[in-house]
Amino acid sequence: MGGYRAGSLALQRQLGVRERAEHVGRSLGQGIKPVAAAFLELQPLLVVGAADPATGRVWASPVVGTPGFVRATGPRQMSVAGGPPPTDPLATALTTPGTPVGTIALDPRTRRRMRLNGRLRPTARGFAVEADQVFSNCPKYIQRRESYEVTGARTPGPARLGGRLDRAGMECVRTADTFFVATVHPAGADASHRGGDPGFVRVDSPGELSWPDYPGNAMFLTLGNLRTDPRAGLLFLDWETGTTLQLTGEARTEFSDGGGRRVRLTVTEVVRTPAAVPLRWSAPEYSPANPDR
């Protein structure tokens, strides 16, 4: 249900932000308000995070459609027309009743984002999610992209699988200004966003990457989940070509003496799909909140 999980509460206490987190946590609800419903209907992209029921590995996957393909169809229900292709690592999870899922709709045009977590129910047209948590985040670290076009002639290339990052995958990570991260906890799943100037994600080896945990809203939902379950899935999207890079593995948070935090992911599996998303976004205007590296 709504509220903070054990891992998040432990981190909030450790870092001395429990009071602030309690104040921010009042935004955690179970209902989809009219402004949130209107926001969802404008989006061409939804990112979904979950664990594959067959392997237990956590992935983050894009689901794309004409605006209106994601809609609120009840006080606590979001319905999605369509889903990922059969080759996507989450294809099975998103057709399995009761799968815990985390979702995030991010609009680069307005630097707004909305997250909805809950349990999945397959439908005739796609799937629906009965919400346990619904909330919005501040625009921090979201790069503004003023417009997009649908490239109908774009045909997805064959998925390239591996256990480590190849040269193209490493370049995708090093040049990224945005990625999405999926995590899980005993009662569900969560999908979140991370952003920064290109280079904020570091490739430490073909099997390991890391990124700084910039100051945020003190909720520590992602890091709290990782504290109790290290499984994580990352999605990198090339906003111009539509190529996706999906990683799964285990992540841990490293704390420095100066109070900084860095998250390190050990990669288990990689899926890179050329032209997977039929959207081409305009060039970014980097968030003024992005720290100097």
From TrEMBL:
Residues 170-254 form the Pyridoxamine 5'-phosphate oxidase N-terminal domain. SUPFAM superfamilies: FMN-binding split barrel. It comes from the Bacteria. This is Pyridoxamine 5'-phosphate oxidase family protein.
